[in-house]
Structures are given as C-alpha cells and as structure tokens.
Write a structure and sequence with these properties.
Layout: H1 20-23, H2 26-41, H3 49-65, H4 71-77, H5 96-108, E1 112-118, H6 121-139, H7 141-151, H8 167-176, H9 181-196, H10 199-212, E2 216-223, E3 227-233, E4 238-240, E5 253-261, H11 265-268, H12 274-291, H13 300-303, E6 306-326, E7 332-337, H14 345-351, E8 353-369, E9 375-380, E10 398-401, E11 405-406, E12 409-410, H15 413-437, E13 442-445, H16 447-451, H17 463-473, E14 494-497, H18 501-524, H19 528-531, H20 541-554, H21 556-583, H22 587-594, H23 602-606, E15 613-619, H24 623-639, H25 644-651, H26 656-786, H27 803-810
C-alpha cells in the first residue's frame, strides 16, 4: 500500500446554535476535530503551533536535565567551523538541575491535608443552629452557672470549660471543634482516592513540569471497573483553546495527542476492519513526515504498528425540553421532548400544558486519526462532573495551571536560567582551552655565554653541567667580561622563563563563571541560603533564615500552582464520588472501599450524594512560619500566658493563621483564668481572714472567760493564802514576842550584872591608880632626894576585857527578823 499524503484542510468550529441531535452526529464531531487540527497542526512557516510548543518544552526539559544540545557551543568555540585542533569535554555543566531539584524537592516536603466543608443547605442549617446554640450558651453562661450551683443541673450542651466567652473564641471553636461526621467521611473518601491513585508520585511529576515548563496538567476520570482515576498528563501532548487565564477556566476544548498500538483502535471502534487499520497506520506514518518530526519509535519496523490519535473534549450546550401537563385531579405529568419541540402558544392553551426547558453545559468526547478525516469516536461524555451548587455547569476532565502565562505564552523558572546556563557552559569550555594551552615554566640557556665560562679546573662547562648546578643549587656561574676583556652581554647564561598570562585568564574566567551563577540566583530568587551552598560565616542564623524565606517567597507561585491542582482534583473526586453513590449500581462497594479504614463512616458515605462540599488545602507551615509561631509560643510560655498543654495543641494546627488565633484565645482564657483565680484567692483569703477573725474573737472570749475564772480562782487562792499567811504571821509574831521578851529579860539581867561588874572594876582601877600614883610620887621624891638616875613607870598589870560589852552594844534586839 502506498503512503498516503497528509493534508490539514482549513476548517473552523461549527455553529453552536444547531439542534442537540445534530451536535451528536459524527459529522459535527469531525468538524470539531478538523478545526482543532487546523489550529494546532497547520504549518505556519516551518512548523505548526503544537510542535513549536513541543520543541520549546523539549528544550526546557533537556536543560533541566543538563542534557541540552552542544551544537551552539561548538559553533561558538569553533574557528571557521574547524574543531580539529580542540580537545575539549563538551559535556554540559549540570547547573540548572540543581536549582530545579531544590525547588521541586522543597515542595515535596510541604505536607498538606485536604479539608472539606459541607456547604449544602442542610449542612449550613446544622452549622448555623449549632453556632447559635453556642452563642446562646455564651450569652447565658452566668445564668446557667447559677442554675448549676442552685440545683446541681448542668444545662450546658458542651463542656463548661469549652464554652466560648467571646465571638473570636466562638469562631475558633467552629473552625477546630465542629466537624460533622459527613465532613469526616468526605475527607476520608478523598484521601482514600488520592492514596489509591498514588497521588504523591503524580504530584511530584506535576510540580516538576510547573518548575521546568511553567505548566502542569493532570486528568480525572471515572471508570466502572476501577472507579475514580487520576492520571498525569504531559503538557507537551496537551492542546486547548486559546486562553489568557493561568488556571485555564475559560477553555472550551481540551485534548491530547497519543501514539497507541494499532490493536488498541479496535477497543475504541469495534467496527474497524483490517484494511481500515492498515490505512490508519499509513496515515500515522505520513503524519510524522508531514510535520518533519521523528516518530515515537525511531525504527520503521515499529512505526507501522502504531497510530497517532487525537483525544479531544469539546464543551457546548444542550437544551432539554419537557411537556408539563396538569391533570384535573391536580397531578403533574412531565414528558421528555426533543430539542426542536416548539409548539405554538395556541396549542399549549388548548391542550392545557406548558413547555419547560433547561439549558446546561455538556462535554462531548471524540477520537480521530491525526492528519485524516477519520473519526473513531464521538459521543456525549458519560459521568460529567457537575457541582450541585451550579448544576448547569460542567467542569472538564483536565486540570491545568500555568502561573506565569501572558497572552498564551508560558514562562518557566528554567527559561529564565537558560541564557546564563549557556554562558556558564561557554566559560567552562574557555577554561578548558586556557588549561590546554598553558605551558610549564622553563629556562633560557645562552650557549655563547657558557663558552666564556672558565671554571679553572680544566674541564669544560657544558649546558648539562650548568643545568645540573642550576636545578640543584639555584646558582648560576657566569662571566662579566669575555676572554678578550670586553663586556660580556651573556654574563648570566641561564635565565628562567615564566608565563603569567594563563593564570590571569583563568582568574578572569572563574570570575565570569561566578558572575553568571549569581545572575541565575538573581533571576530565580534561589539564593545561597536556600540550599546552604555558600553560607556566610559572619551572618547570624536569623539572617540566614530570612534569606531562605525570601527565596521561598520568590518561588511561592510554583507551590500555589501545585496546591491549585490538588484542590481542583479533590473537588472533582468529591463530585464524582457523589454521582457514583447516587447513580452507579455498585455504590455499596465504593462505600465499603472508602470506609475500610473507619467502619463507622460507611453509613455517612452512603448518604454522600446528599451533600455539597467546599474543598480547602491545609498546608503545613514552612520553616519561617514555624519559627515565628514557635517564637510567639515560647514568649507566651515565658510570660505565663499559656501552659505546656496549650502549646502542644497550638503546634498540632498546620494553618499558622488559625494557630495564632488559637494562641490569642488561649492567652485570653489563661488571663481570664488567672484573674478568676486571683479573685477566688482574694475571696478565699477574705473568707479565711473573716474566719480567723471570728476564731480570734472566740479565742479572746474564751481567753477572757478562762482568765476570769482563773482570776476568781486565783483571788480565792490568794485570799486563802493571805489568811493562812496572816495566821502564820500572827503565830510567828506571838512566838517572836515571847522569844523577844525572854531575850530582853535575859539581856536586862546580863546588862545589870555587867554594870555591877563594871562599877566594881572601876573602883578597883581607881584604887589601883591612886596606889600607883602614890608609889610613883614616893619614888620621885626619893630620886630627887638621892639624885638617882631616871626611872621607868610602865606597869603591865592585869587589864579588863571589855569586848563583851562592845558585843552587846552591836546586838540590836529591835532588828526586823523575817520568819516567813
């Protein structure tokens, strides 16, 4: 069979205002496919739009892998195209892969949770009722406390400690603690589907595409055999309608180009014959020749067994018309009618019925062979995804994001680095050239100068001896004058030859290399602090963290794009599960599969379709956010505003905004608790002081009573003692008087006797003195008469002892003697 010539005819999208029946025809689908082919695959110059973008994305991927083409570098280095004198290593320097890995791997570290909020009228009513009840308890908390104190009845619907005290705390409780079982079931369902589809691996590929290509694409489908499926889609193979929205919300067609084995075509269209398959294979063979592109298989042996197909989805509208008739008994009957049903007004009045119509968005799916007019499939898409809040709309199977798109052109992080990566590669090659051309240091030997040197030993001074002397000792022997006595111009026969040009060139090239590397960091925001490759030893840790945080901010759009894809896929999963639970026969199997982790949510899963959900991505904070939150927590702990258990609760919340709100609420509650404790302590102290005062008064009264009784007893005892004392004193005085009388009597007798003895002694003494005087007078007369020598008249006669009278004088009988 001869090769078939491929031609892309000029075609435009068909009229949208035709009937639904005409939209469902293969001819309508063929016109859609041909219009898409004309827009993306017609040759505008040398290549079509599809392959221009394909080559652009392929180039970015090669740079991201460090495998870019070296042809441009050879052209830059070669002289007139000649590379025969160059011996260089042309392997590209893998600079860009390092920065791509930093961004992508850093995104993989950010753990996320899918949060579901039921937003249908039933859930909103339950949420509002619960919030109103909480607010009512918050307002009436004082009265409810009085009821509890008075009657012992707990009228609170929740724990008294958890009852909010203000509106901020109420909002926080609604965010953290109010979680209906259906929301838990929905989160479990979404997480289960993500795990079953190995979404972590899929997400890494999408993140890599966003960083390298500037665009990431994923796809969601529902198959009866496998349920909800998530698939990675290569952005190079994707086609879509023109859009300037970075989230592709306004695209009305999607598609992707696939090369499949010819045998797969039977599964798409079982009516194909062997001749049809051969013809399709030839068309696919010619399609690559038409675009001057290599096929997936480089070997022609395999190329004939493959077919290049265009899978596309197209959004349009379908109008559903119904005949509504009300019978005489009031019952209403609805009859489905074709889209062209349009009876006159008179007929409706006579037949007592009315026409009801509804226009909704629908998606058609088709498959056609590239470069041909052969369409293999065209039908209304089954299991379309419709949000319950806006059921007239249907979302596409594809989820795409290009955060830096302008006028349809996609900008990527790698594209910013490509010019400087090329300059770095050229600098690297120039460095190799300089190194190849650098020569070692040498010496210059003047042979004529050596001939003029005479060592005086008779031996010749040849160059070999001179070099040996120079290299071993560093000394050189020369002559200032020749043998003829002339000035010797070669008086230094050996001189070193050094070259410095190579070192200077290498230093300049290294500076250029570092400059271009800094330029890559500047245009991408990936500074040294992000990867820790060149930390500043003089910079503080906080400064390093701030620099890393600034780098994270520069690439935040890539992380946000990844979260958008995750959120949209989770939303689609939620809608698809809801439809499956309502319409698919094996809904119980799905409920059992999702509820295998928690058997108690199976009942809630069975009612999944009754609810509508809002999806939010709760991402774990980065190091900067964790640092700020931890700083706030530590400061609050140091001030005593929160306790350790409060800090643990705050750290478990991934949303830093909610965590800070909880921190404020905890601080407020702790302050209120401290104030309440202080007031309770003051009240307790006052009560204790009052009790102590009353006890003191009682003690004083008891003491006074005891003292009174004691005083009475003491007075009685004292009176008795005084009586006894007086009696004893009386007895003692009587005895003393008797004794004194006896002493006085004896003393008087003794005194009288002593007086008599004294008078007798006086008389005896007087007599003795007179006798002595007379004797001495006689002696003196005799002396004078006889003229005798002087005489001594000392007389030591007996004396009178008067000590006893003196003793009696010292004895005082009236002295007060104490007999007690």
């Amino acid at each position: 069979m001869q090769k078939i010539s491929v031609d892309i005819p000029s075609a435009y999208f068909p009229d949208q205002f035709v009937s639904d029946e005409k939209k469902a025809t293969p001819e309508f689908g063929l016109r859609i496919g041909q219009a898409i082919q004309y827009e993306w695959f017609r040759k505008d110059g040398s290549r079509g739009r599809y392959y221009n973008r394909y080559r652009k994305f392929h180039k970015m991927r090669l740079y991201a892998r460090g495998e870019q083409s070296i042809a441009k570098y050879k052209k830059e280095i070669a002289v007139d195209g000649d590379l025969s004198y160059l011996n260089l290593d042309w392997t590209p320097v893998p600079i860009i892969p390092k920065f791509v890995d930093i961004v992508v791997n850093g995104m993989s570290d950010r753990i996320f949770d899918v949060k579901v909020v039921a937003q249908d009228p039933i859930s909103v009513h339950k949420r509002t009722t619960y919030q109103q009840n909480l607010k009512a308890e918050m307002v009436a908390s004082a009265e409810l406390d009085q009821i509890m104190d008075a009657f012992g009845v707990d009228a609170f619907t929740m724990d008294r400690v958890d009852t909010p005290t203000n509106d901020d705390e109420l909002d926080l409780i609604m965010q953290l603690k109010y979680k209906p079982s259906i929301e838990i079931a929905a989160e479990t369902a979404i997480s289960t589907v993500l795990e079953d589809n190995f979404y972590e691996d899929l997400k890494k590929r999408v993140n890599y595409d966003i960083a390298v290509l500037g665009m990431g694409v994923a796809k969601h489908e529902f198959n009866l055999g496998s349920g909800v499926e998530l698939k990675y889609v290569d952005p190079s193979d994707v086609i879509h309608s023109y859009t300037e929205d970075p989230y592709f919300k306004d695209c009305f067609y999607w598609g992707e180009v696939k090369t499949v084995p010819v045998g797969e075509l039977i599964k798409i269209d079982p009516s194909l014959t062997t001749e049809d398959l051969k013809e399709i294979s030839e068309y696919s063979y010619g399609f690559y020749d038409y675009n001057n592109e290599p096929s997936t298989y480089g070997d022609d042996t395999f190329r004939k067994d493959t077919a290049t197909l265009l899978y596309f989805n197209y959004k349009t509208t379908n109008t559903f018309k119904y005949k509504k008739k009300v019978s005489e008994n009031g019952s209403v009957k609805i009859i489905d009618k074709p889209s062209d049903f349009n009876p006159p007004k008179e007929m409706m009045e006579d037949g007592k019925f009315e026409m009801v119509e509804k226009t909704i968005d629908v998606w058609y799916e088709g498959v056609m062979v590239m470069g041909t007019s052969i369409i293999l499939k065209w039908n209304l898409m089954e299991n379309m995804v419709r949000p319950k809040s806006a059921s007239q709309h249907a979302i596409p199977n594809y989820v795409a994001v290009a955060p830096r798109m302008y006028k349809g052109n996609v900008e990527s992080l790698v594209r910013r680095m490509v010019p400087f990566a090329d300059l770095i590669q050229i600098t690297h090659l120039k460095l190799q050239q300089v190194m190849n051309r650098m020569t070692p240091d040498g010496v210059f030997i003047d042979a004529d100068g050596l001939n003029e040197v005479d060592l005086g030993t008779g031996a010749a001074y040849n160059p070999e001896d001179a070099l040996r002397l120079y290299f071993q000792t560093g000394s050189v022997v020369g002559r200032s004058f020749t043998q003829d006595g002339d000035f010797n111009n070669a008086r230094v026969p050996i001189q070193p030859i050094t070259g410095h040009s190579g070192g200077q060139k290498m230093s300049a090239l290294i500076n250029n290399y570092n400059h271009y590397l800094r330029m890559i960091r500047d245009v991408t925001g990936l500074n040294e602090a992000r990867d820790g490759s060149m930390p500043d030893s003089n910079a503080l840790v906080g400064v390093q963290k701030l620099a890393a945080a600034n780098s994270n901010t520069a690439t935040r759009h890539i992380l946000d794009a990844s979260h958008f894809v995750t959120r949209e896929l989770a939303q689609a999963i939620s809608m698809r599960i809801s439809d499956a639970m309502e319409y698919i026969d094996h809904a119980e199997e799905i409920a059992m599969q999702i509820g295998r982790h928690k058997s108690e949510i199976i009942k809630d899963i069975s009612e999944y379709y009754l609810y509508d959900y809002g999806i939010f991505i709760d991402v774990s904070p980065d190091e900067e956010e964790k640092g700020r939150l931890e700083q706030n927590i530590q400061l609050a702990i140091q001030k005593g505003d929160i306790g350790l258990e409060d800090a643990i609760d705050i750290r478990e919340i991934k949303n830093t905004k909610t965590a800070n709100q909880l921190l404020k609420v905890k601080k407020s509650k702790r302050a209120d608790q401290v104030q309440a404790d202080a007031m309770a302590q003051m009240q307790f102290k006052a009560e204790m002081d009052n009790q102590n005062k009353q006890a003191e008064i009682q003690m004083q009264a008891m003491k006074s009573q005891i003292e009174s009784e004691s005083n009475v007893k003491e007075m009685a005892i004292r009176a008795k003692f005084e009586m006894e004392k007086m009696m004893r004193e009386t007895e003692m005085k009587a005895l003393l008087m008797q004794k004194q009388f006896e002493f006085d009597y004896q003393l008087a007798e003794l005194k009288e006797s002593k007086l008599e003895e004294r008078d007798i002694a006086k008389e005896d003494g007087k007599k003795t003195r007179i006798d002595r005087q007379n004797t001495q007078q006689s002696k003196l007369i005799n002396q004078r008469k006889n003229n005798l020598p002087p005489m001594s008249f000392e007389d030591k006669g007996p004396g009178v002892n008067l000590q006893f009278p003196n003793m009696l004088q010292n004895f005082n009988m009236e002295e007060n003697t104490n007999f007690e």
